[in-house]
Specification:
This protein is an alpha/beta fold. The chain is built from 17 helices and 12 strands. The chain folds into 2 domains: 176 residues, Glycogen Phosphorylase B (Rossmann fold, 3-Layer(aba) Sandwich), CATH 3.40.50; 186 residues, Rossmann fold (3-Layer(aba) Sandwich).
Length: 374
């Protein structure tokens, strides 16, 4: 029996791939699984070829240092694909590497399912032809991606956003505050500076400075900083309490949020938390991105809404005083700005589809795996 090979590039991909692998195990208990992945795929029964923690990078300049390692890994995967032991490749995000894996799979006659497809609508429109030539089936998670991919010859089906499954049992605000030991009657600011070292290096200080300014204006304000389980930040750099591996609890406990750009903004939409978005990257990465990015918004919540639901402060525009000014009305339960933000986030959540994305992707995977030539 030939294996299903998963390839992910970071922890979030491992989480979503793990859910698909669990669904595959239920359908075909003895199905062999292998992966470039992490703990979630391992617990689902996949044999881990390389741990995802060794791969996670971001930005244009940051990727350069990892090219030799990626080249070696690609040669290893190509040999595995040519061996005949792989019946299906399931790729998740990580396009710079995964599109090369797709080419190797295509050359070896192995079907490819791409779940959480590259954000070609933002800056990689040239990759649409590449996707069409290299993958068998796409499972996009944003509502507008299906039509875009299909218009360029990609067999695509919108499966809904996997965040909806994680958010199935959200706590109430009072429950979340009790879990975190917060005062139930005082306002709470949730701070999400990012999970990667490069993100923290650029976001943590200005995010903390913004929170400190808000504390001066609103003395009763409680500040909670959400970080990844492996992140260790000294109290001298961040005087506010850190909460690890409980993002939805923090989002539900908060009155408003200061979030780095990315999937966290969609998590906030699912949780119904008004927020502003801050983002900084290296000067070179930003200069390149300005030439390539073709959409007016950087925050995913605004991309899905096709308008600015959440204020964005990018690169030099991120000044703690300006960001604090934008957050003050969101921390006021009676403000019109807060009510408008809540309504906008509810509309975004409705566009994300329905729960069950992993099960739908697993069904696609099994169909492709069973149809593949022996």
């Amino acid at each position: 029996m030939r294996e299903v090979l998963f390839v992910v590039g970071e922890a979030s991909g491992d989480l979503h791939a793990g859910k698909v692998a669990e669904a595959l195990r239920v359908a075909v208990p003895d199905l062999p699984l292998a992966a470039i992945g992490g703990g979630h795929l391992r617990r689902a029964g996949a044999s881990i070829l390389v741990d995802v923690a060794e791969l996670a990078v971001m930005g244009f300049t940051e990727v350069l240092a990892h090219i030799p390692r990626h080249a070696l890994l690609l040669r290893r995967l190509s040999a595995r694909l040519r061996s005949g032991r792989v019946g299906l490749v399931v790729l998740l995000d990580y396009p710079g590497f995964n599109l090369k894996v797709a080419a190797a799979a295509r050359a070896a006659g192995v079907p490819v399912l791409y779940y959480i497809t590259p954000q070609v609508w933002a800056w990689g429109a040239g990759r649409l032809a590449t996707l069409s030539a290299r993958i068998t089936k796409a499972a996009p998670i944003l509502p507008f991606e299906e039509a875009l991919l299909r218009s360029h010859g990609v067999d695509a089906t919108f499966v809904g956003h996997p965040l909806l499954d994680r958010a199935a049992d959200l706590p109430t605000m009072s429950e979340a505050r009790a879990r975190l030991g917060l005062d139930p009657s005082a306002p709470v600011l949730a701070v999400f500076p990012g999970s990667r070292r490069s993100e923290l290096a650029r976001h943590l200080d200005p995010f903390v400075a913004t929170a400190a300014l808000l504390r001066q204006r609103i003395p009763a304000l409680q500040v909670v900083v959400s970080v990844a389980p492996t992140v260790d930040i000294p109290a001298t750099q961040c005087p506010f309490p850190l909460v690890r591996d409980a993002s939805f609890t923090v989002l539900r406990a908060a009155t408003a949020g200061l979030l780095k750009s990315g999937t966290t903004t969609l998590e906030a939409a699912v949780a119904g938390l008004p927020h502003v978005i801050g983002y900084r990257t290296s000067a070179l990465t930003y200069a390149i991105a300005r030439r390539l990015v073709t959409i007016p918004h950087i925050g995913l919540v605004n991309v899905v809404a096709d308008r600015e639901v959440s204020r964005e402060f990018v690169q030099g525009a991120f000044r703690p005083d300006a960001v604090a000014d934008a957050l003050v009305p969101l921390l006021d339960p009676q403000s019109q700005a807060r009510r408008a933000a809540v309504d906008g986030l509810a509309a975004v959540r409705a566009r994300l589809g329905t729960p069950g994305a992993a099960g739908r992707v697993a069904a696609m995977a099994l169909e492709l795996w069973r149809a593949a030539p022996a």
